[in-house]
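User: Hi! I'm working on a homework problem where we have to compare a predicted structure to a textbook description. Could you give me the structure for the chain below?
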Amino acid sequence: MKAKELSVIVFWMLMGIYVSWASFRLGVGTLYYPGAGLMPFYLGLCLILLSLVMLFRLLLKSAAESEKARPRSILYWKTATVVGALVVYSMVIDRIGYIVTTLILLAILFWTAGTKKIFAVIASFITVAITFYGFTYLGLRFPPGLLAFLGF
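Assistant: Happy to help. Predicted C-alpha cells:
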C-alpha cells in the first residue's frame, strides 16, 4: 500500500514542480504588479508543500494504520460532478462572467464536499466577493459577462 501512496505523492510533487516552473517562465511579477504566472506559481508551490507533508506523514505511519485509514469506496458521482463543473466553468466563464459562474461553481463544490446547501450558497457569495474585490483592487479585470451592464 505504501508504494501506491508514494507514487501518488510523487506524481503531485512533480505536477507542482512543473506548474511552478511553467508559471515562472510566464512571469510572476510582484504582489502589486502581478504577472500572468503569479497565481499558478504559488499554487504549484502549495502542491509541492502539501506533497512533502503527505510524504512525511506516509513515512511516519505504520502499515496497520495505513490499512485502517484506507477508504472503503470511492464516490464516483462526486468526482464526476466536480470534474464536470470545472469543465463547464472553463467553457462559459467568458460568456457568463466571473461573478455568476464562480458563484455557481463554488456552490456546487461546497455542496459536493458535504456542506448544507444554505452554507454552500453563503460561503460562495463571501468567497466571490472577497476574490472579486481583492483582485480588482490589485488591478486585475475579470470577464463581466451577464453583469456588464452593472459596470462589473
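For your comparison, note the following. The chain has a mean pLDDT of 83. Residues 46 and 85 are 23 Å apart (CA to CA). Good luck with the assignment!
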